[in-house]
Write a structure and sequence with these properties.
The structure holds three protein chains of three kinds.
Chain A (H helix, E strand, L loop, with lengths): L1 H13 L10 H6 L4 H30 L8 H23 L1 H7 L10 H12 L5 H30 L10 H15 L9
Chain B lengths: L1 H27 L7 H8 L13 H10 L10 H12 L18 E5 L9 H5 L5 E2 L7 E2 L19 E5 L36
Antiparallel strand pairs in B: 1-4, 2-3
Chain C lengths: L33 E2 L5 E5 L9 E2 L6 E2 L4 E4 L8 E2 L4 E10 L7 E9 L19 H10 L12 H4 L8 E5 L9 H24 L3 E7 L3 H11 L4 E6 L8 H9 L14 E5 H12 L6 E7 L7 E6 L4 H7 L9 E4 L6 E2 L13 E5 L18 H5 L6 H10 L2 H6 L10 H5 L6 H59 L8 H5 L2 H31 L5 H26 L5 H15 L1 H31 L4 H27 L20 H19 L5 H31 L4 H37 L1
Parallel strand pairs in C: 1-14, 9-10, 9-12, 10-11, 13-17
Antiparallel strand pairs in C: 2-8, 3-5, 4-7, 5-6, 7-8, 13-14, 15-16, 15-17
Helix pairs in contact in C: 1-3, 3-4, 3-6, 9-12, 12-16, 14-15, 14-19, 16-17, 17-18, 19-20, 19-21, 20-21
The chains are: A mainly alpha, B mainly alpha, C alpha/beta.
């Protein structure tokens, strides 16, 4: 139980996938201009992460390992992730057509979000991984991504109406802000050694 | 050889399995219709003028949902283009109109009654029935309902309809935006010379 | 805390934020209220209050007395306007008024005659026994509006839907410089308390509270003295701007917060100003309409600062001059206080019900604001805001035009008190940004409402057009289906397919035609009779009999029409129609035949043309073309004959006008009987001197029928010639006779037309 809690804190704060490990920057920059779309994107990505994390782990343990096809892991993982994203897309389209339109191309781009493949591959590194830890890693990654995305979107909304020098307007000031947020998250390092 | 076959077989099996899941999902989560059209229509100014090339705002909303450019609404101005871009997640285009139309000025139609011959052509042209009249009777514009769409000016055979800008009344007057950084903040209203203005006192 | 020291019996709850600007109260509160001299002219704006402007009830040139109604309240949220000077109305026109737009608004201008004659309403000294409704009516009649600055009609505020627990008198007067309520309370506390009690009776409040700031000790004493034994509690609150704001005062005294977008009545409270309570007192107890108010005249460009009781409509310049205005040092003239007042653009602006203060300031006292500098995000504005808003965020959003987000941050709850702008170190005119944003939001809401209306009208119009088209379609389809049905069921005609195939309209029409023809026949017969009577030796008796017969027939026909219109179809006609249904089912065949005839004629004509062209051009195949044309002609004639035979198959009774029905070719004799009837109208017509429309119609009809008869007879002759049967000689004679008749009828018509033209020519020129 304790390890699970620590695992979550690690993936959400200490080793935040966006600001510490610098994965998943494309949707981070692309969908964060409005808070509503950021929240929607965060929810979709978390869903995909949790599900794909579990499915890839299962595929690895029960298909690739027994059949000695470990070298096919990238292909298999991408296959699993693509299916998960497609499923999510259909669900979002049904549940909220507006969100579907707002997210636009970024929804299928979750497939190539490096966080998703990254979590899948990270799960393989540890020897004593179980399905639960894989699931929690995915969930933690998603929660961390959501946290940072929502914070960043809220900040970008304020920056959008502020007096920014002309040379810095747009993506430039956003990246500078992201860098500063990353600096802030460095404060968590050493909190947990995992 | 065997390994290759096993590999291929495993992948194919996985692919078929996932394909089946997706097929089920596509049936379960089928989406009918296109609710986005109503959301687009809600952003349009409803003048039904036809300047976008479509016979009304709803047809244009449907066209935009179908992929047409979203910068054709002239009465909506650049505001509407921006709002549509936000709604649809498309890039913000420049309004597809002449220079003069870039900032839409509110106008209403006015019929010079001395010249009106009562032909009802303008009544048939008005998309919101804002002209009151009957055959061989005087026609007049109901200014509250007129959207300024301009469609009545053409059909008039005696050219007695003109578009007049809507005047500001004390009820519709609003404050202007302060000039911004560096400007003298309060718009000082100059006091009319007390001596000159003191005739009645 | 300090509540007991201040003599309160209830705690003061306090409210967030607030600032402490320098008070400048002692500039003007040391001297008693003076009565301002009567002006020579008053300018009374029709819109001195919140809500709809009043409507004038006097005209230019009317003589009015003080307190006389000059403009009536329009609608529910509106107030009356009364004359504040006795004299004559000289104008009702736009004049400069106290509006930030600087636009002129309609005013009633009265030139005083110096008499100061009053028109008072009956005093209600026994108001404690009066019905609250009567007191409310008096308040409405007197035109009392909120005199603290907002100008909301008191009669509307004092009639809330909700139950009122507390009535609060707003005697706080928190804004610097203003001392009007202070002096009013010091000098007329009893009147103010009486007015308050009248209001208590009107709103049926359980508790009455008075809120006063602690910088007015004399006023507090006076009010406490007057409130003894009246059930009115005077609560002293610490001096802070803007504790005089309605919502802030309520929170201060009761701890209740008025909900966002709501009214004090929603929490069971009604607030009113000191001046308003005083006006209520004067209206009820003395019967005086609201025609004057206490105005603080202050500012260091004035020599005699203090309070005056001024008549409404007095131009401010006259008040200021009377107070010793130094026009050279005057830099800015403010109506209201320095926080919420606004700069006047003209000194001719009149005093209105909401004018509580006039500040004639020098450049030293109220300097021009510094230029706006960038926001440093210090947050001092948020600390000062009494409504717990985020002025900084509202500023950013208003500036960037993100009005939706500004609304989310409760922009509409801003009371525009100016505390945030007062503390801003960058001198940002925050309140102006908020006013701009509020205006844009209101404009957008008005646009959206208008767009919605336009959409509804457009859709209604589309629906109407579609319905008209659908109706037309339905009618057309019904007709086509009826025709199809007739074509598809020819064999069933004699059976009671008849009732289904009967077209009531057609039957009525035929009956009408028959009736018309019968009337025409009758009229012709009468004419003939008259002619005969004029000429001796003619068979008058026979003609008379004929005339009577025709009259009977005409009446019968008319009756039949009437009956048919009411739904009763004559029996013989039914049978006839039934029988006719069969040939009418073959009417589709008739149609087809007609179509074929048309085509054949067309082909023939084309062939003739081609032949002629060939002849003209000398082409070789001319003779061949002519042969072809001949063939076409034969075919056309054959078809025409077939058509006539088909038509001849229909019984006579359908049209009931013997003239128009085709008789079978071998019975020309039957025609003879129809002839006199046909010729009579043709002959009678030229004799008619006056040419009425009916007679013209008759003429034309006769021409048409005779021509048709002739053509048919000629065709019948042709057929007979071709078939080689029939009495050719008789037929030829008949044809010739008919031709003559047709020519005569046409000549008669032409003569009449020429006559008409001549007559019109004479009239026209």
């Amino acid at each position: 139980m304790e390890t699970y809690a620590l695992l979550l804190i690690s993936t959400v704060l200490v080793n935040n996938f966006v600001l510490v490990q610098f994965l998943g920057l494309c949707p981070f920059m692309g969908v964060s201009s409005k808070l509503e779309s950021a929240v929607g994107m965060a929810a979709a990505t978390t869903f995909v992460l949790t599900l794909s994390s579990a499915l890839t782990f299962l595929a690895y343990q029960y298909v690739l390992l027994p059949l000695d096809l470990v070298y096919l892991r990238t292909v298999t993982f991408i296959l699993v992730i693509a299916v998960t994203v497609q499923f999510t897309e259909m669900f979002v389209k049904k549940a909220s057509p507006l969100l579907y339109r707002v997210l636009g191309v970024f929804l299928p781009l979750i497939t190539v979000n490096c966080i998703v493949l990254g979590v899948a591959l990270i799960n393989l590194k540890k020897m004593d991984n179980t399905l639960v830890t894989a699931l929690l890693t995915g969930l933690g990654a998603g929660v961390g991504f959501s946290l940072v995305l929502v914070l960043f979107a809220a900040m970008r909304e304020r920056i959008a109406v502020a007096d920014v020098p002309v040379a810095f307007r747009g993506p430039a000031i956003a990246l500078v802000t992201a860098g500063l947020m990353s600096l802030a998250f460095m404060g968590f390092s050493g909190l947990i050694r995992i | 050889m065997m390994t290759v076959l096993i590999a291929v077989g495993a992948l194919i099996t996985l692919a078929l399995l996932f394909g089946a899941i997706l097929g089920f999902a596509s049936v379960r989560f089928r989406v009918e219709g296109n609710p986005i059209v109503q959301q687009i229509d809600a952003l349009l100014p409803q003048t039904q003028c036809g300047q976008c090339g479509y016979p009304g705002c709803k047809p244009y909303a449907e066209a935009v949902a179908g992929g047409d450019l979203h910068n054709k609404c002239v009465p909506g101005g650049n505001d509407t283009v921006v709002k549509l871009s936000e709604l649809l997640g498309r890039e913000v285009l420049v309004l597809d109109a002449d220079e003069a139309d870039q900032v839409p000025v509110k106008k209403v139609a006015y019929i010079r009654e001395a010249e009106c011959i009562g032909c009802t052509k303008c009544i048939q042209a008005c998309p919101v029935d804002a002209i009151l009249g009957a055959a061989q009777k005087m026609h007049t514009v109901i200014t509250d309902e007129c959207t300024g769409c301009d469609l009545c000016v053409e059909p008039c055979p005696v050219d007695c309809i003109e578009m007049r800008p809507v005047a500001v009344t004390p009820q519709t007057w609003t404050w202007q935006k302060p000039d911004g950084i560096g400007a003298a903040a309060a718009r000082r209203i100059p006091l009319i010379e007390a001596g000159r203005a003191g005739e009645a006192a | 805390m300090g509540s007991l020291i201040l003599g309160n019996t209830r705690p003061v709850h306090g409210f967030p934020g607030g600032v402490h600007p320098p008070e400048h109260k002692s500039d003007s509160n040391t001297t008693p209220i003076r009565s301002a001299a009567l002006p020579e002219q008053v300018v009374l704006p029709l819109a001195q209050h919140a809500g709809a402007p009043a409507e004038p009830v006097v005209a230019v040139g009317d003589r009015v007395r003080v307190g006389q109604l000059v403009a009536k309240a329009r609608g529910l949220v509106s107030a009356n306007v009364h004359a504040s000077l006795a004299g004559t109305v000289v104008a009702i026109e736009p004049r400069p008024v106290q509006h930030a737009s600087g636009m002129d608004q309609p005013c009633i201008v009265i030139a005083g005659d110096g008499s100061d004659e009053w028109l008072r309403m009956p005093p209600l000294a026994d108001w404690q026994q009066r019905e609250p409704a009567a007191l409310l009516a008096r308040i409405r009649d007197a035109g009392v509006a909120g005199m603290g600055g907002a100008g909301f009609p008191t009669a509307v505020k004092a009639a809330p839907r909700q139950k009122i627990a507390q009535l609060i008198l707003n005697a706080v007067e928190c804004e610097p410089y203003i001392t009007a309520d202070d002096r009013l309370m010091r000098e007329r506390a009893a009147d103010v308390i009486a007015g308050l009690n009248i209001l208590r009776r009107v709103v049926a409040a359980d508790e009455v509270l008075v809120g006063i700031e602690d910088n007015k000790p004399e006023a507090i004493a006076a009010m406490r003295g007057a409130a003894l034994g009246q059930g009115v509690e005077v609560v002293v609150v610490p001096t802070k701007y803007p504790s005089g704001g309605e919502k802030q005062l309520i929170q201060n005294l009761t701890g209740k917060e008025v909900p966002s977008g709501g009214l004090p009545a929603d929490v069971g409270i009604v607030c009113c100003n000191t001046g308003t309570a005083h006006a209520v007192f004067r209206a009820v107890v003395h019967g005086e309409a609201l025609v004057s108010r206490i105005v603080t005249l202050t500012g260091d460009a004035l020599a005699q600062r203090g309070n005056v009781e001024a008549r409404l409509g007095t131009p401010v310049i006259s008040l200021l001059r009377a107070a010793g205005l130094d026009e050279k040092r005057l830099h800015r003239l403010v109506m209201g206080g320095p926080m919420m007042g606004f700069t006047l653009h003209s000194t001719q602006v009149p005093v209105v019900k909401t004018t509580n203060c006039l500040i004639a300031a020098t450049a030293h006292a109220l300097p021009d604001p510094a230029p706006e500098q960038p926001c440093i995000r210090c947050g001092a504005c948020a600390e000062a805001c009494p409504a717990s808003l985020l002025p900084q965020q509202l500023y950013w959003f208003s500036k960037a035009g993100e009005f939706a987000k500004a609304q989310d941050h409760h922009l509409m709850d801003c009371i525009e008190c100016g505390a945030c702008a007062y503390v801003c170190p960058s001198s940002i005119p925050l309140v102006q940004y908020y006013r701009f944003a509020k205006g844009e939001i209101r404009k957008k809401q008005a646009d959206e409402r208008k767009a919605e209306r336009a959409k509804l009208r457009f859709e209604a119009r589309q629906a109407r057009i579609e319905q008209e088209q659908a109706e037309r379609e339905a009618r057309r389809k019904a007709r086509a289906e009826a025709a199809k049905k007739r074509a598809e069921a020819p064999a069933e005609a004699p059976v009671a397919a008849a009732p289904a195939a009967i077209d009531v309209d057609a039957v009525v029409k035929t009956l009408k035609n028959a009736s018309l023809q019968a009337s025409a026949d009758y009229k012709a017969a009468v004419k003939a009779l008259k002619d005969a009577e004029a000429q001796p030796g003619s068979d008058v008796a026979a003609l008379t009999r004929q005339a009577e017969e025709l009259k009977a027939r005409a009446d019968a026909a008319k009756a039949a029409v009437r009956a048919a219109q009411q739904g009763e179809l004559p029996a013989e006609l039914l049978a006839a129609t039934a029988a006719a249904a069969a040939p009418d089912a073959a009417g589709a065949d008739l149609e087809k035949l007609r179509h074929e005839v048309g085509e054949a004629s067309g082909a023939y004509k084309a062939a003739v043309r081609a032949a002629r062209e060939a002849e003209d051009s000398g082409a070789g195949n001319a003779s061949a073309l002519r042969q072809h044309a001949e063939q076409m002609k034969q075919r056309a004639d054959e078809l025409k004959a077939k058509l006539r035979d088909a038509k001849a198959g229909a019984p006579v009774a359908v049209a009931a006008s013997a003239v128009e029905t085709e008789q079978p070719a071998p019975a020309p004799a039957a025609e003879a009987a129809a002839m006199p009837a046909a010729s009579a109208p043709a002959e009678a017509a030229p004799a008619a001197a006056a040419v009425t429309p009916e007679q013209m119609k008759l003429l034309k009809t006769s021409v048409a029928t005779s021509t048709k008869q002739y053509k048919e007879a000629a065709a019948a002759l042709e057929t007979a010639e071709r078939n080689g049967s029939g009495d050719l000689a008789a037929m030829q004679a008949r044809v010739a006779g008919l031709k003559q008749k047709a020519d005569d009828a046409r000549a008669a018509l032409d003569a009449v037309v020429a006559q008409m033209k001549a007559a019109a020519g004479k009239e026209g020129s």
